[in-house]
Backbone:
């Protein structure tokens, strides 16, 4: 999708409050990858603050909160993978399983939980953006 | 702010991944009323499904999950009220305390927890939208 | 209220097991600021132990647990603010919104979460005591 | 302990903010059976409201919240039993193990979780009061 | 693997307390599909009790607890899928992604959360057993 | 029970998927000390990794996760003590109360939470094994 199209899609989505996107396991049908993205942005901001502040107690708080927020990223992604995406989606996007597996791993021990390197958070955000793109394609289908 | 300006602001915000809006209590600085809104949209969708389905077990699940999602709305709003908004904001927007108090009450026993009436969810979403508007005004200030 | 009166009020309250004070969002009607106060006392005790013990691992545990207990203080205060206090209370005590906002901030990043200074815990306990006083006045009204 | 003494002890305790009673597992040393009692009072109030209101959806909410609050009673009691009480206490009060076991059972399936009978909540509150009495005796020892 | 071999493997595993199988995201390296299986067995037992007891309040408790235990099944399976299994496993067992996706769906709205049919719990347990078999094969590799 | 008998019992248990052992507070009747044991094995593995790695951030994560996993050990043991074991069991095994009290203490501040010594984890695992043995004896009675 070209950038222009994406902006139009974005405007359409943001300016249409009546269009909702489910996420609980009733299921209510309201899903939105923004939930995972916001937590991942938080993880990235925590890592940046960690890099800029050498106070040991502050850094401990960074590690504690980064652990919690990374876990939330994993949770929101797992919910999308299991509850929102259905067999026809996995058929159309055969890379989807691996994409989610890699994204959740990037929020774990080999990713933002186990690292204080900003690049890990960037990789995580990029994977979430890939998922986000597919998500909105399936919503418009 | 005119609608055109708001759309431009929205495009700018959504298409600029480097602009983040904090929400954890490090604080990481990433806040976004979308977290409360998504849960409130879920609450509304649950109520609609409740109205359309008289199966007792399904309705029980609606009540259980509506309770949880309403609690999440309250939590996300409390975090904004305590962690994001600062004394100068409360000075500039003197209605802000009452707005948050009413919004969180609307997600409680006198609101979406204690009711299966869609209008309660609509009132809640409207309050969150009022908060959302003020929030983005303060971000651009 | 003079100290003598307060002691009498205290005796009356403590020795009357049949008087209960609600706190869940049914609502059950059982509220008690003691829940926030006990957690805040815990936070203060943790900070004191932190000051008296330089073992790094012990101090890490202090930071972890102080984070959790401060969050509980915030939660119990939010519940009182949203669920117990009603419009007539806010009219009678116009300082109440700000009081709760400051108290919950004192249990956050700018307070006991972000600090290992006993004075922060003392400030938090003093705010909770102010809330406690108003709470019991409204219960007797 | 005579009632007069208990009242004096109570005044002393309540009016002395520097005397704290630990409850987290640092341990901070701040324990207070009031935490379990407040939740049990909530459970009793929920049951009373259940008895007075036959609206099915309201009753469902009662069952959901009674389940949660009963679990909190169990948790607060377990913490006292494992974290506060030490071998010398169990030697001095040989009934203590059974007392805690019965109290936590009374907040479970055979007690307030599995029943909507007020008498179960009363039995639970009575057991907690027995624990409370022993607790304060050990604090004064 | 023949049944005889599997029994021997089982004996070996159970009788060797020093052999551990990690599950937290340090990672500690201790994983065990038994965690998901025990919760799924609980879900099945809850459904059986639901079928045998028509008391409305008891059935409500079944629905509440079935919801929680099904969520735990999903969580334990997600942890295995993201944290334990690595790219070489997915190469060797190309069905693994779909297996986990189907298993977690079977603990959700289209499975044990949304149904009180014992057969759904049996399907879930069968999927977990398939995962369990692959898990132990990879541990012995 | 001789070792040979115990192995046979183990085979029987593991290879008979229809034999379940309850754990939720419906109660569903599915209990299994394996839940506490797996978490305790995780705690032990975390301590071992802590000893082998002096990276400060890694060690902080060890302390954070050890705290959580130790809490889970306590929770699973409390559930067995309150929900599974009944008065006749306590009569037949008079040491049972003290055994659970010591085991849960070993997962707390005086045990694996407050220590990074492998021997504490070994003591905890040994206590859980004692409980496990009694548990399976009562299941076969």
Residues:
């Amino acid at each position: 999708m070209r950038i222009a199209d994406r902006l139009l899609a974005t405007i359409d989505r943001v300016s249409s409050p009546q269009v909702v996107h489910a996420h609980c396991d009733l299921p209510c049908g309201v899903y939105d990858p923004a939930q995972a993205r916001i937590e991942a942005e938080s993880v990235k901001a925590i890592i940046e603050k960690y890099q800029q502040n050498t106070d040991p107690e502050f850094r401990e708080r960074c590690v504690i909160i980064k652990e919690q927020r990374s876990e939330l990223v994993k949770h929101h992604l797992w919910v999308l993978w299991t509850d929102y995406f259905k067999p026809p989606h996995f058929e159309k996007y055969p890379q989807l399983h691996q994409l989610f597996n890699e994204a959740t791993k990037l929020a774990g021990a080999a990713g933002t939980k186990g690292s204080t390197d900003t690049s890990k958070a960037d990789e995580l955000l990029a994977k979430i953006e890939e998922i986000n793109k597919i998500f909105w394609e399936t919503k418009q289908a």
Summary: Chain D touches chain C through 34 residues (CB under 8 Å). Confidence is low (pLDDT under 50) at residues 1-22 of chain D. The CA atoms of residues 95 and 109 of chain D lie 23 Å apart. Chain D is about 70% helix and 0% strand.
